[in-house]
């Protein structure tokens, strides 16, 4: 199985200040059964309009991993 993670956000905050505003933040996990052109499924979590906290985004933030191979493990007792 192949997996890719994407995180993005839009907001405003000042560095080293405890106050900020996130208009929208999201984290998406895409999965596909194999390498190549297989169709991917996307799962996401979105948070809209967060005020307060120290984790605000400065204008726009975006990060995405490369496709990673995840091996299936079977645990036995």
Descriptive report:
With 77 residues, the protein is mostly beta strands. The protein has strands at residues 2-13, 20-32, 41-52, 59-64, 68-69. The mean pLDDT is 84.
Briefly characterize the structure.
It contains no helices and five strands. The protein is mainly beta and 77 residues long.
Q: What features would you highlight for this structure?
A:
elongated; five-stranded antiparallel beta sheet; mainly beta; 0% helix; 77 residues
Order of helices and strands: EEEEE
Relative helix content: under 10%
Beta-strand portion reads over 45%
Shape: elongated
Mean pLDDT: 84
Distance between the termini: 25 Å
Calculate Rg over CA atoms. 17 Å
Major sheet size, sense and barrel closure: 5 strands, antiparallel
Strand segment count:
5
**Uncertain regions spanning at least 5 consecutive residues:** none
Number of helices: 0
